[in-house]
Write a structure and sequence with these properties.
46 residues; mainly alpha
Length: 46
């Protein structure tokens, strides 16, 4: 039996997509936090 069967490929892809989604979510939350910090900084500056 080969290692590249449908079940293993699906499992690998699911794991990969989950990791990519997690990375993307972390990036988005980081951008949101930066926006908040910039907003607070600009408000306090005025």
């Amino acid at each position: 039996m080969g290692r590249n069967n449908e079940k293993n490929i699906k499992k690998h892809n699911d794991k990969l997509h989950k990791a990519q989604a997690k990375k993307k979510q972390a990036e988005l939350s980081r951008k949101e936090k930066l926006k908040e910090i910039a907003k607070k900084f600009n408000e306090s500056k005025e």
